[in-house]
Amino acid sequence: MPDNTDNLSKLAVSNQKGGVGKTTDAINIGGALNDRGQDVLLWDCDPQGYLTMGVGFDDAYTADEPNQYSAMLSPGSHSLGDLILSHEEFDIVPATIDMFQLEQELVTSMKGREKLSTLMEGLEGYDFVIVDAPPSLGHLTDNALLACQNLIIPAEAEDTSIRAIDILFKQIETLNRTLAWTSMKRQS
């Protein structure tokens, strides 16, 4: 087991198009890594909560605080351990129905694209974190991409899926430009 986040591999599973197998891939990759003796944390960052419910945590999806919604709003005031649930193959940070409101909250928040990174700081005991991102161009997807910086893109062999990949790459380019500009501005 890793003793710090430097040894932690973080993977975002993302595509702007829904229905391409993001959640299924995230669950199966988590299970396969576990089968190879790796300690895995699945993180459901999609307000639809399909990963959460797909691994049997339907009650967590409608649970009260503390939950991922409240933790993303105020990362420094939540213990990550309060959010993690145990599963026989991997642990999970479940999505909650409240996360549908989170997108707008992150737009108006300072550092709204860095909340997930802040929550993951100091995360220990895992070899891999796999984040299931929502099929959108919003701040939750930005959070997943920035926190992980490793990307798995499930796709179908059809025009709409290929177009969605192009859109995702443009989103990543925009994030890179924005971060470079913000970094230069801080140094000035």
Instruction: Name the structural class.
Output: alpha/beta
Mean pLDDT: 87
**First-last Cα distance:** 40 Å
Strand order of the main beta sheet, please? 3-4-2-5-1-6
User: From the structure provided, what is the oligomeric state, counting identical versus distinct chains?
Assistant: single chain
The shape, in one word, is globular
| Beta-strand content estimate | 5-15%
Largest β-sheet summary: 6 strands, mixed
User: What is the tally of beta strands?
Assistant: 6
Helix content: 40-55%
Query: Roughly how many Å is the radius of gyration?
Result: 16 Å
Indicate the low-confidence ranges by residue numbers.
1-5
Number of helices: 8
Give the topology string: H per helix, E per strand. EHEHHHEEHHEHEH
Q: Features of this protein?
A:
alpha/beta; globular; single chain; disordered N terminus; six-stranded mixed beta sheet; 188 residues
Structure description:
This protein is α/β, with parallel strands linked by helices. The chain is built from eight helices and six strands; from the N terminus they run βαβαααββααβαβα. A six-stranded mixed beta sheet has the order 3-4-2-5-1-6, sandwiched between helices. It starts with 8 loop residues before the first strand and ends with a helix. The N terminus is likely disordered.
Write the layout of secondary structure elements.
Layout: E1 9-13, H1 22-35, E2 40-44, H2 50-54, H3 58-61, H4 68-73, E3 85-86, E4 91-93, H5 99-108, H6 115-120, E5 128-132, H7 139-148, E6 151-152, H8 159-187
Parallel strand pairs: 1-5, 1-6, 2-4, 2-5
Antiparallel strand pairs: 3-4
